[in-house]
Amino acid sequence: MSDKLTSEGLESFLDETCDSIRGDRAVAEFKEYVIAILFLKRLNDRFNLEREVRRNKLTAKGLSQSQIEEDLERREVYRLFVPKIARWDKVKQQKEGLNSYLTKVFLETEEKNRGCLGALNDIDFNKTTEKGDNFITNSDLVELIKAFDPLVLTDDHLDF
What we know:
about 160 residues, 6 helices, single chain, mainly alpha
C-alpha cells in the first residue's frame, strides 16, 4: 500500500477481512482474532522501524556485526520488544499449528513487555466449538496473516 492508511480504510479492511474469513460465525466473536493479528502486525512494524534506526546508529559507531546483533536483541533498548517467536517474518512462515503457536506468541510478548497486551492476553486461539473443532481454524489464521502482510502499520503510514 503506497498511500497512507486512513481510519476509514482500516475499518473497511477489517470488515472485509472479517467477512471473508469468518463464514457463519458471529462477527463479535471472530473480531477478537482479527484485532489480535492487527496488534501483532502493528507491534512488529513499529519494532522493525525502531530496530532499523538502532542498527544504523550502531553501524555508524563502528560496532562489529556481532556486537550490533547482540545489542539489537536487548529488551531494554526498545519501547516495546518483539520476541523472536513473535516476529512477523517468523509468524507468517508458520503454516501448521498456528492456534497453539499464536498462543505462545502472545504469552511471550506479554512476558517481555509487562502488561502491554491488556485484553488481548485473554484471547483463546485454541477455543473450540460445541463439536470440538477449533473456533478459528489453522487455515483461517493463515489467511488472516496473509491479509495483513502487505499492510504497513508504522506511524508514518497511518493517516489517523
